[in-house]
Design a protein that fits this description.
Layout (H helix, E strand, L loop, with lengths): L15 H9 L19 H10 L7 E4 L9 H8 L3 E3 L7 H14 L6 E6 L12 H5 L1 H4 L4 H6 L12 E2 L5 E3 L1 H7 L4 H14 L13 H15 L5 E4 L4 H7 L2 H17 L6 E4 L21 H14 L19
Parallel strand pairs: 1-2, 1-3, 3-6, 6-7
Antiparallel strand pairs: 4-5
Length: about 325
């Protein structure tokens, strides 16, 4: 994909009122301080780009993905792997977000050997919708998209607004899920709507879409881009709470899930990457009580997931040979 020319910001700052209100409500980054108003919006994408610019080191371990990946802790990962990292995950992530953030990191430190852990939500592989406002307005991120795509987004650009706090390495320290749990909202209360939804709308398709959408193209192009820069990412299929999975799973679900894994196997003929299917918590010894809701896990479960990833795919963290590496010649 070619990158487009820079364009000037649109007149006015419609996000400024939201920004001021957000700062007043406590949207401050833990341990980072307030950024200059001209440099930020309330978008997670811009927050993460700001944090990356203040990091003080080039991260070797990078977490990307959506809100399910926000609690992957670079600090904990450093203790497990020795790799200094950064969490670049963003709320309501699309593949275009991953594309932009990784390009930004490579531009800042092109010679660094990186290890990327990408939290995958199956339904987002082909997801295509209007870009987040930061991908069109933030000059650090918009440069990675052609001008025609940015212009095609039209008016009414948005970003997911929420109350979140991040550490200096991008790791999440507080959000609405933590606030709800602290206020006494139970896991059962959070699961029941998802269970009812699964009952009302059972899975009926037997395969994932094969349409080459914009989102799917960026997904595949990002794999190719990483391989070009000596990175073979680890894709982790994120889990669903077992009580919801028990209702959701049927023969159609099994067939569709198998088609997703088959799609990854086909891509592995062209690109080097690893897939860990952690859809079921038994695959990483997860705790069903350590969830906030149907798909967002507490820190203890995220640590279990990361521990299992390091055990099952050590090469994705710089330990040992990958399956595609040629065997070493005997001495």
């Amino acid at each position: 994909m070619s990158k487009g020319r820079k364009v000037q910001r649109r007149a006015g700052r419609p996000w400024l009122a939201a920004l001021v209100a957000g700062l007043a409500a406590g949207w401050l980054l833990a341990g980072v301080g307030v950024q200059p108003a001209a440099a930020i919006t309330t978008s997670d994408r811009t927050w993460k780009a700001d944090l990356l610019g203040r990091l003080g080191y080039a991260p070797r371990l990078v977490f990307v993905g959506g809100s399910r990946s926000l609690r992957l802790s670079p600090a904990y990962a450093y203790r497990r792997t020795g790799l200094r990292g950064f969490n670049a995950a963003v709320v309501e992530c699309m593949n275009e977000d991953v594309w932009a953030m990784l390009h930004l990191m490579v531009k800042r430190a092109p010679k660094v050997k990186r290890y990327v852990v990408w939290g995958i939500v199956p339904g987002t592989i082909s997801l295509t919708r209007q870009l987040d406002s930061a991908l069109v307005g933030d000059p650090r991120l918009r440069r990675w998209f052609p001008l025609s795509l940015r212009q095609a987004q039209g008016s009414g650009l948005r970003h997911p607004v929420g109350r979140r706090r991040y550490a200096g390495d991008g790791g999440l320290t507080w959000d609405k899920y933590a606030a709800e749990a602290a206020a006494g909202v139970s896991l059962a209360e959070k699961l029941q709507p998802a269970i009812e939804q699964a009952r009302r709308h059972p899975v009926t398709s037997d395969s994932i879409s094969t349409t080459m959408t914009r989102g799917r193209r960026y997904f595949e192009d990002t794999l190719a881009y990483l391989n070009t820069h000596d990175c073979e990412p680890l894709l982790v299929l994120t889990p669903i709470h077992p009580k919801v999975m028990q209702v959701m799973r049927n023969d159609h679900w099994d067939s569709r899930h198998a088609s997703l894994l088959a799609y990854f196997e086909e891509l592995q003929e062209r690109y080097h990457f690893t897939v860990l299917d952690f859809t079921f918590i038994s695959s990483f010894d997860g705790d069903p009580a350590a969830f906030y809701d149907v798909s967002h896990m507490k820190e203890s479960n995220m640590r279990r997931l990361l521990d299992a990833a390091v055990r099952q795919a050590p090469w994705a963290f710089g330990k040992g040979d990958a399956p595609w590496d040629e065997p070493s010649e005997p001495q």
